[in-house]
């Protein structure tokens, strides 16, 4: 039986799909890390989307705006796409084009797409969906520690005595990790959960802090201030391994327990207890996800977690650390491979001369010095940005303020959509390029704890679909020929990976395909024979001084707060049976188990509106309205409604606002003002 990697979440479970007569008939899981035989419902029953009737089967071209998409040959479609991109390049320069690689494609495919942007189109306008999920974690971790990933491996769960889980509904979003954590809690470990909703994690918690949406940073700052007052901090660690302490300490002045109770709604005794438990447990690990990051103060909130961990000496130790749980299966890999506007592969800064020289030598072309635009900035810059090469993304579903995104896409002169399935963005495309799914190609994915794992081909792609690396390579050939730039022909993904190993040997130099036959290997792994680093920053940090840096993490109120017309707060997110924009899970049998949008409404709010459980309801914001079914439940607090964003026919992102975090430019998905109307 062939082993490959689950295409859904960043846990990166190893799966053995059994294929009969061109169909997945069952999925087994080997006793290998990271999942050791365990799978969630998505890995077990959700791998049938490659057989969906919505597969894109042949290239399509729209000759001019207003004309319909028509079937084309690969030659025609690629020539057309290359010709249009060159036209924009000549007219607007490199700033007129953006390339968005996908966190659902392999490392090799991401590497090639960002190389096409940088080495052929001379633009750093490269970004991916991390902009919408963990870019704020990346910003905080990079500036403080010099690295943007989980510091500790998943299996450290078994060594952890206290879990601090902030803004992560792990039970539904990373179910296999949640099951491990809960088992460890049953063995005696303690768990503090900070979340407005009564999630599966809150249910299993030793201490649950029901924080008001968007106030976590106040709570975390108050915990730090309390620990400083009580002397419950690691002075030796702070003095030896950090800098910026005095300035940060001064920034905590107003974050008293009393003020925190007022702002967050959490009793001050609970905040103090959480702080004491975290500080006094040697092996205490912090875990977080979108509840922390998707705010206009997302970077500040992630920073407050980093500061707390440094204050208590939790980084660089087993069973502890800072652990952002990455969403998409290869979102860690997409960042590692340079699908970001300010860094090359290996997080080497585009603004620094050393990295630029390294990639100029490797690729044989001069490279631009200034960082590019971020994904959310690219959409704002349309029509100044005239062309987007979009791979495996559905911005109409995933970006905030959907009507605005649609307006922008209508104003965009040229859009290439490369994907496996038709989605909400496909109708806006000028060229559609059909891609192979994870079952139909070779390559590697990197999971949330930095483990590089193989993706293996079990089936031929349907129709004329081709692997993303092949499509990007063919498009690149045409651009390179016209521009007179070098562009090697790669016989397959392994050759691309070999170039990655040469490009960033300090990160993945020791990880060969041959080595990955047995099981995944974690980076950093600089040479063959190196086991791969499990715990980061045991010795020093990856900063110029080798020390970690504290940064002030100020609380600011949400960009939109409830008003008489819109008296409720909307928070968006995910459910166990679906995944992100729903392109994969809603085209699998999972959709039968969870076929429509249910909006969580607290019983007090429901009573006020005369709303019964299961009744249809409209959720209305200043930007639009969607129809859903009310789920009257105490899971969500009074005044807060919760809507997953997987449903194209009732898109939660029609309601969300596009206010951005000033540092990372992540949107504020977690707090919008809405009202409910009986449908
Ligand atoms: Fe797939 Fe994530 Fe579920 Fe594992 S936990 S089976 S990687 S969706």
TrEMBL record:
Sorted alphabetically, the Gene Ontology cellular component annotations on this record are: membrane
Q: Which SMART domains match?
A: Molybdop_Fe4S4
Q: Which Gene3D superfamilies does this one have?
A: 2.40.40.20, 3.40.50.740, ADC-like domains (2.20.25.90), Dimethylsulfoxide Reductase, domain 2 (3.40.228.10)
Family matches, as Pfam families:
Molybdop_Fe4S4 (PF04879), Molybdopterin (PF00384), Molydop_binding (PF01568)
* Matching CDD domains: MopB_CT_Formate-Dh_H, MopB_Formate-Dh-H
Q: Which InterPro entries match?
A: Asp_de-COase-like_dom_sf, CT_Formate-Dh_H, Formate_Dh-H_N, Formate_DH_asu, MoPterin_dinucl-bd_dom, Mopterin_OxRdtase, Mopterin_OxRdtase_4Fe-4S_dom, Prok_molybdopt-oxidoreductase
Q: Where are the transmembrane segments?
A: none
- One example GO MF annotation: metal ion binding
Q: Which UniProt keywords apply?
A: 4Fe-4S, Iron, Iron-sulfur, Metal-binding, Oxidoreductase
Which GO BP terms sit in this record?
formate metabolic process; respiratory electron transport chain
Using the record's annotation, list all stretches that form the 4Fe-4S Mo/W bis-MGD-type domain: 1-54
Q: Which PANTHER family match?
A: FORMATE DEHYDROGENASE H (PTHR43105:SF14), RESPIRATORY NITRATE REDUCTASE (PTHR43105)
Protein name as annotated: Formate dehydrogenase major subunit
Lineage of source species: Bacteria, Thermotogati, Deinococcota, Deinococci, Thermales
């Amino acid at each position: 039986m062939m082993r490959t990697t689950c295409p859904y979440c960043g846990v990166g479970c190893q799966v053995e799909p059994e294929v009969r007569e061109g169909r997945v008939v069952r999925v087994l899981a080997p006793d290998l890390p990271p999942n050791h035989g365990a799978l969630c419902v998505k890995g077990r029953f959700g791998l049938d989307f490659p057989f969906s009737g919505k597969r894109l089967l042949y290239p399509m071209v729209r000759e001019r705006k207003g004309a319909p998409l028509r079937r084309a040959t690969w030659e025609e479609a690629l020539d057309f796409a290359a010709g249009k991109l060159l036209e924009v390049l000549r007219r607007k320069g490199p700033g007129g084009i953006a390339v968005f690689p996908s966190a659902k494609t392999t490392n090799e495919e991401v590497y090639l797409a960002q190389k096409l942007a940088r080495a052929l189109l001379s633009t750093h306008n490269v970004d991916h969906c991390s902009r919408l999920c963990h870019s704020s974690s990346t910003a905080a971790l990079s500036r403080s520690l010099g690295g943007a990933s989980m510091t500790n491996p998943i299996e450290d769960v078994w060594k952890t005595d206290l879990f601090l889980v902030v803004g992560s509904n792990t039970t539904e979003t990373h179910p296999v990790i949640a099951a491990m954590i809960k088992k460890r809690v049953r063995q005696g470990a303690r768990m503090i959960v900070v979340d407005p909703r009564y999630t599966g994690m809150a249910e299993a918690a030793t201490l649950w802090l029901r924080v008001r949406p968007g106030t976590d940073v106040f709570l975390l700052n108050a915990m730090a201030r309390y620990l400083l007052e009580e002397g419950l901090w690691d002075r030796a660690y702070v003095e030896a391994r950090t800098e910026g302490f005095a300035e940060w300490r001064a920034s905590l002045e107003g974050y008293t327990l009393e003020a925190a109770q007022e702002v967050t709604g959490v009793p001050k005794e609970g905040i103090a207890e959480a702080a004491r438990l975290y500080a006094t447990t040697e092996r205490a690990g912090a875990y977080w996800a979108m509840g922390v990051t998707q705010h206009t103060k997302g970077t500040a909130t992630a920073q407050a977690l980093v500061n707390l961990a440094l204050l208590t000496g939790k980084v660089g130790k087993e069973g502890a650390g800072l652990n952002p749980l990455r969403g998409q299966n290869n979102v860690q890999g997409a960042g590692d491979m340079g699908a970001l506007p300010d860094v090359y592969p290996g997080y080497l800064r585009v603004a620094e001369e050393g990295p630029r020289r390294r990639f100029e030598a490797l690729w044989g072309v001069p490279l631009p010095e200034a960082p590019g635009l971020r994904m959310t900035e690219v959409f704002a810059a349309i029509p100044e940005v005239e062309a987007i090469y979009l791979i495996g993304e559905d911005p109409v579903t995933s970006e905030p303020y959907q009507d605005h995104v649609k307006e922008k896409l209508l104003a965009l002169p040229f859009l290439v959509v490369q994907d496996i399935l038709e989605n909400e963005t496909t109708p806006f495309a000028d060229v559609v390029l059909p891609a192979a799914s994870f079952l139909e190609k070779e390559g590697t994915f990197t999971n949330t704890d930095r483990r590089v794992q193989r993706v293996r081909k079990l089936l031929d792609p349907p129709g004329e679909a081709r692997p993303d690396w092949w499509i990007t390579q063919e498009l690149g050939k045409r651009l390179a020929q016209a521009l007179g730039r070098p562009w090697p022909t790669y016989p397959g993904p392994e050759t691309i990976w070999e170039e990655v190993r040469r490009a960033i040997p300090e990160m993945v130099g020791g990880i060969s395909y041959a080595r990955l036959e047995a099981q995944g290997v974690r980076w950093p792994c600089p040479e063959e024979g190196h086991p791969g680093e499990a715990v980061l920053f045991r010795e020093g940090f990856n900063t110029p001084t080798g020390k970690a840096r504290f940064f002030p993490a100020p609380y600011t109120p949400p960009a939109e707060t409830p008003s008489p017309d819109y008296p409720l707060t909307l928070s968006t997110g995910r459910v166990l049976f679906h995944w992100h924009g729903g392109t994969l899970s809603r085209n699998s049998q999972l959709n039968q188990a969870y076929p429509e949008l249910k909006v969580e409404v607290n019983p007090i709010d429901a009573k006020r509106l005369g709303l019964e459980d299961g009744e249809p309801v409209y959720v209305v914001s200043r930007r639009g309205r969607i129809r859903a079914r009310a789920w009257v439940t105490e899971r969500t607090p009074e005044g807060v409604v919760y809507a997953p964003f997987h449903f194209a026919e009732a898109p939660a992102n029609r309601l969300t606002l596009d206010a951005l975090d000033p540092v990372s430019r992540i949107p504020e998905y977690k707090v919008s003002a809405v009202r409910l109307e009986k449908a």
